[in-house]
Design goal:
five-stranded antiparallel beta sheet; 7 helices; globular
């Protein structure tokens, strides 16, 4: 009986591990701009913690403004104050998310995809979808980022958010099965089915 309980607990471990990492990494991204005014020191600390993960350029980022809106940090008539704050021509202060718009979408979608995972796949699934779907999901971000990188055009935060979301939403459907495979081991039932279907 203890072995059965141990196995049941292990089948959730890959998912729980992924979710724990995502919650610890992603939730502060969305909380950080809200801390700008009431807790400036904590705001600065969180900005610094995310600096190695992103370029944090204001012109490629989104801000939470004191009037309760979220928008481009580089909207019309905005002056950048340091690397983390902006002020518009009405004196409304904005606090930058600690990562750029594309990264906000990627990480947010990685968390959302993980929340959707149990409704679409078995939680202990050890079989990732065909790699072609992952490649297809990366094409928009590759075109958007690549054409900007080589100077053909300048992307917008709307495009960065959309392409980042498309790439991010599929990631858990590959990472969670891989984690499950390492933690639980290969899917023996699948191997048996494949062997029995061969002539």
């Amino acid at each position: 009986m203890p072995d059965l309980i141990k196995m049941d607990m292990r089948k959730y471990l890959g998912y729980v591990l992924y979710m724990a990492l995502m919650l610890v990494f992603v939730v502060p991204i969305f909380i950080t701009p809200l801390l700008g005014q009431p807790y400036p020191q904590l705001f600065q600390t969180l900005q610094a913690l995310y600096a190695p993960a992103c370029h944090q350029l204001a012109e490629r980022s989104i801000c939470y403004f004191q009037d309760g809106t979220i928008g481009d940090c580089n909207r019309d008539n905005v002056a950048v104050i340091g690397r983390q704050q902006v002020v518009d021509d009405h004196g409304i202060l904005g606090y930058k998310f600690p990562v750029c718009a594309r990264d906000v979408a990627i990480y947010g979608a990685m968390l959302l995809g993980a929340l959707l995972f149990p409704f679409m796949r078995r939680i202990d699934d050890r079989i990732a979808p065909p790699l072609i779907y992952f490649i297809i999901a990366l094409i928009p971000i590759g075109i958007d980022g690549g054409t900007q990188l080589i100077g053909l055009r300048t992307s917008t935060n709307e495009l960065r958010l959309i392409t980042g979301f498309i790439a991010g939403i599929v990631i858990p459907f590959y990472v969670i099965p891989i984690l499950n495979m390492f933690i639980i081991g290969p899917d023996k039932n699948r191997d048996k089915k494949q062997k029995s279907s061969q002539p």
